[in-house]
Inverse folding.
């Protein structure tokens, strides 16, 4: 029996009462409702609760009295919080620039009709399949001052080579940036490659026949097409940067001192380790605000760009 | 775009090879270190192959290393992760499939609003829900249990799986559904007869992606599991960062490979689908 | 007939099983005693409580000097499912008691005030009820010197900062590392508190234990940071991230001369077969001779399903306070017994000295909580953040003192 025949025979068996018709129409909404409930509770509900906690004197256990903006005052007068925010900037900017630059470069290289493209793409992407804990463990080993890169380079002859970035409060964050770029570049490259592939070959060929130079072709034809990809990439990377947590825990535990604390680490430490749930909740709300502040303008710009392009 | 010049091609391949090497070196180091013994680690250069290959570090990482809670290696946490991942992946994928189908093909008032509602859940920093989620799990008597972790991963995975399936099912011509409805077929029958048969590729993408995300999670595992339900990522972090005496880097590295193995295997065999999962959400959005 | 017989059997089995397990109460114990000597100490208690037909369910969580264990505890407490018994020290005890999470031990703690020094008894109380049972006492203001290296540097044990610098210079000249240190927030904190304490017990009490802003921004505090900076000259290059027990190993193995660490370091020396007086000397941190800064490791007992103290919890608390347990456990741990009725006749010379010093400090009222014991986790974390940052950078002392005052204020 074909699908259509099955459907017809089913119809013959159904009654046509209005209740069942209403039910039929509501099925999609009913199917979605558990997920909507879950989302309302687990996402919006919990965020509201955390927001509420940020206005309470909660320390070890949640307390539900309201004390106004005290926790936020505590947060904004906490040097370690501002250091965390500062570190986040020093992490995010090189991370986005590095991943985007290397990703674009790799995508351009791979777009050149090369052989073994599949194998190469697999090589660039595999770090994303790893947990940040695994990636952090690998890079922590590489950056190890005694056994790692420093000694390997010395072995190869350059005996006065020193590399202790992980132990240097000013440079440790860049070790984390490098590990993060390593994990994300393949993904960015895939996005750019998809974008590059969507460029119409005919237009490029026509431009080449007209004698346009390679840089001009890139500037005039290709870059505009992949501009939306730039938006997506920046959006995703910025949002990943704000959420970065695991790799800090395993590579530096926030150290040396507080040199690699990030807002995510601040929240976890204050809420769960130092028994200061109120401040922890306040810092979590600030993280949320950061994500909103990044996403909303970018999404707006992206939708404008898409509208202008079409 | 093609350049026929031989030197340009050579430089191209060289550059790509260099990058490939850079990408592979960290994992190469991890592997190579895991097969060395501690004495050689101290003497040698990290890039060199082991003088004597030994699996002692692997055995220790699997069943004897101290991870803070006990000295049973990563094995118990590995099994915890397996127990957690399988139900979480299956449940979140199935729910995502039905949600995506409903949103893509059944237009009713509020469908777009619901989609946005679900999607925003993807972007929130999980720090903003940790505290109440811990309380909620306790309230349900699911704290420090694998079932509790499954619930959390399903709850927060629905956003992505729904988006994945919706973007896929949206490309099915609505006329098919219209025709079927005219003939009197209902929601589930249409799904079974029309959408399910074409869903294998997207289910594969979803399962691979969800498996990777959930297996690799650390934050939820660290916040919601005590010692009983702890997943392997948290176990690995404890292994690497608990210094009681001399640090055994080879055991640490063996532990890292053990933790990475399942997702790597999934990646090697399902790599194609992995890429599709990435680009599915990101570019179409 | 078959079905009801099966049901009857099932009911009987459940009832019997229930009766059987009603006797053996499960006590889940969350602690962070995971190294060799510590495990031995814990196993003494485990053996004793199991003789009383209770079951000890072990939840050991290593790392961070207890930080990881306390984090797990908080998650579980928030979820309403805390373990029955938890290792804890410091104001955390009072914090949890204030939150109503602990059971009081008044039923068995009647005679405790008679066998504990007042300063120690006080850390167990909240609003005149007892909430914690102390296992042993650690002394923090110790300095350990490798004897062979000390002899090469003139043989005189330093009792003031100036003398310390002189000895350190001589050790350096003799080709050894003067001070063994590991730059972890933990050891930085211990190093720092020793210097604060050498400025006088009242200054230490005001600045660190009370968080007095004037004391924290005073010239004395700036001098403390200056002293820290001075002392860093005597560290070696590999201090970054070195765990404290590896720093101790440097002194044990004769590569470095001096170690500043609490008496758990004595356990490291003992495990390596070193003898006090022969291979190493133990003296109070210069400037803190009369002071005894203590840490009291205790067990607290969390309410299970809002019930008062269970028989198992009370039995465990009582066992901890017996001389038999205290002598054995402190011996393995490298500490000294908390109760005054226990004897230290079998302990090594450093421990005996510690016990004698503690007795003396009771009468001269210089028995005081160490930084780890007397400050909340938030304040301890804040102090460590500032000190660690100072030691890892070229920050000047004045701004460090100001940052410390600010951080302590924020952590109140």
């Amino acid at each position: 029996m074909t699908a259509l025949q099955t459907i017809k025979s089913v119809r013959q068996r159904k009654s046509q009462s209005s209740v069942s018709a209403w039910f039929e129409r509501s099925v999609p909404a009913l199917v979605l409702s558990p997920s909507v409930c879950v989302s309302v509770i687990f996402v919006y509900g919990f965020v509201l609760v955390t927001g509420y906690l940020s206005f309470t004197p909660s320390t070890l256990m949640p307390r539900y009295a309201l004390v106004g903006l005290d926790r936020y005052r505590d947060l904004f007068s906490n040097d370690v919080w501002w250091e965390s925010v500062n570190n986040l900037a020093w992490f995010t900017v090189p991370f986005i620039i590095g991943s985007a630059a290397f990703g674009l470069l790799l995508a351009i290289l791979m777009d050149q009709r090369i052989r073994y493209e599949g194998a190469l793409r697999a090589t660039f992407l595999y770090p994303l399949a790893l947990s940040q804990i695994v990636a952090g463990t690998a890079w922590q080993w590489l950056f190890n001052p005694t056994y790692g890169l420093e000694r390997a380079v010395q072995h190869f002859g350059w005996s006065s080579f020193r590399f202790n970035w992980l132990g240097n409060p000013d440079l440790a964050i860049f070790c984390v940036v490098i590990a993060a770029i390593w994990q994300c570049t393949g993904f960015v490259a895939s996005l750019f490659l998809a974008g590059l592939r969507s460029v119409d070959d005919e237009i490029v060929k026509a431009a080449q026949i007209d004698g346009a130079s390679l840089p001009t072709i890139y500037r005039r034809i290709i870059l505009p097409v992949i501009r939306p990809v730039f938006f997506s990439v920046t959006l995703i990377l910025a949002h990943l940067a704000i959420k970065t947590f695991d790799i800090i825990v395993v590579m530096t535990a926030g150290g040396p001192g507080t040199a690699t604390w990030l807002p995510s680490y601040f929240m976890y430490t204050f809420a769960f380790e130092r028994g200061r749930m109120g401040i922890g909740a306040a810092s979590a709300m600030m993280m949320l605000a950061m994500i909103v502040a990044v996403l909303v303008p970018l999404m707006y710009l992206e939708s404008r760009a898409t509208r202008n392009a079409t | 775009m093609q350049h026929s010049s031989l030197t340009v091609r050579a430089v191209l391949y060289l550059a790509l090879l260099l990058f490939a090497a850079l990408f592979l070196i960290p994992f190469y180091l991890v592997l190579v270190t895991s097969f060395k013994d501690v004495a050689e680690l101290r003497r040698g250069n990290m890039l060199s192959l082991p003088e004597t290959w030994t699996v002692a570090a692997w055995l220790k990482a699997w069943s004897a290393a101290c991870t803070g809670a006990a000295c049973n290696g990563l094995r118990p946490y590995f099994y915890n992760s397996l127990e957690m991942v399988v139900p979480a992946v299956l449940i979140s994928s199935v729910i995502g499939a039905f949600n995506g189908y409903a949103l893509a093909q059944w237009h009713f008032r509020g469908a777009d609003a619901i989609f946005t509602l679900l999607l925003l859940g993807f972007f929130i920093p999980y720090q903003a829900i940790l505290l109440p989620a811990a309380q909620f799990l306790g309230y349900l008597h699911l704290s420090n249990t694998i079932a509790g972790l499954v619930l959390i991963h399903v709850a927060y995975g629905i956003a992505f799986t729904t988006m994945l399936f919706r973007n896929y099912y949206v490309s099915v011509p609505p006329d098919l559904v219209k025709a079927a409805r005219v003939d009197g077929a209902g929601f589930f029958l249409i799904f079974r007869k029309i959408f399910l048969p074409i869903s294998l590729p997207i289910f594969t993408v979803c399962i691979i992606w969800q498996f990777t995300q959930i297996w690799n999670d650390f934050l939820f595992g660290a916040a919601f599991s005590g010692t009983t339900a702890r997943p392997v990522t948290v176990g690995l972090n404890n292994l690497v960062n608990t210094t009681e005496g001399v640090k055994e880097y080879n055991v640490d590295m063996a532990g890292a490979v053990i933790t990475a193995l399942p997702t790597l295997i999934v990646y090697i065999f399902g790599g194609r689908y992995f890429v599709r999962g990435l680009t599915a959400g990101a570019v179409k959005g | 007939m078959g079905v009801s017989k099966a049901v009857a059997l099932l009911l009987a089995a459940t009832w019997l099983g229930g009766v059987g397990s009603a006797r053996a109460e499960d006590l889940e114990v969350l602690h962070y005693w995971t190294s060799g000597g510590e495990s031995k100490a814990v196993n003494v208690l485990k053996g004793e409580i199991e003789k009383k037909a209770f079951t000890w369910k072990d939840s050991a969580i290593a790392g961070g000097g207890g930080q990881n264990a306390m984090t797990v505890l908080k998650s579980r407490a928030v979820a309403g499912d805390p373990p029955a018994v938890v290792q804890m020290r410091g104001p955390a005890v009072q914090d949890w008691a204030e939150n109503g999470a602990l059971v009081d031990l008044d039923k068995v703690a009647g005679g405790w005030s008679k066998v504990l020094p007042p300063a120690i008894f006080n850390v167990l109380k909240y609003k005149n009820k007892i909430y914690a049972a102390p296992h042993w006492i650690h002394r923090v203001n110790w300095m350990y010197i490798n004897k062979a290296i000390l002899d090469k540097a003139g043989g005189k044990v330093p009792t003031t900062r100036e003398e310390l610098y002189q000895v350190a210079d001589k050790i350096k000249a003799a080709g050894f590392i003067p001070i063994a240190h590991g730059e972890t927030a933990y050891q930085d904190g211990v190093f720092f508190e020793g210097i604060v304490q050498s400025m006088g017990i009242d200054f230490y009490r005001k600045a660190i234990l009370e968080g007095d802003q004037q004391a924290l921004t005073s010239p004395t505090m700036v001098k403390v940071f200056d002293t820290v900076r001075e002392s860093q000259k005597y560290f070696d290059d590999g201090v970054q991230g070195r765990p404290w027990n590896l720093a101790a190993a440097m002194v044990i193995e004769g590569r470095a001369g001096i170690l500043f660490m609490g008496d758990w370091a004595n356990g490291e020396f003992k495990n390596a077969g070193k003898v006090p007086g022969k291979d190493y000397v133990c003296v109070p941190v210069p400037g803190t001779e009369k002071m005894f800064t203590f840490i009291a490791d205790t067990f607290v007992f969390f309410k299970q399903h809002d019930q008062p103290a269970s028989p198992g919890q009370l039995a465990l608390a009582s066992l901890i306070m017996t001389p038999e347990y205290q002598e054995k456990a402190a011996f393995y741990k490298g500490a000294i017994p908390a109760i005054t009725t226990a004897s230290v006749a079998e302990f090594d010379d450093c421990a005996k000295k510690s016990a004698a010093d503690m007795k003396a400090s009771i009468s001269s009222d210089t028995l005081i909580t160490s930084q780890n014991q007397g400050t909340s986790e938030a304040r301890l974390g804040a102090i460590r953040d500032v000190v660690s940052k100072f030691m890892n950078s070229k920050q000047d002392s004045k701004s460090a003192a100001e940052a410390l005052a600010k951080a302590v204020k924020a952590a109140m």
Notes: Chain B has one domain: 75-283. Chain B has a mean pLDDT of 86.
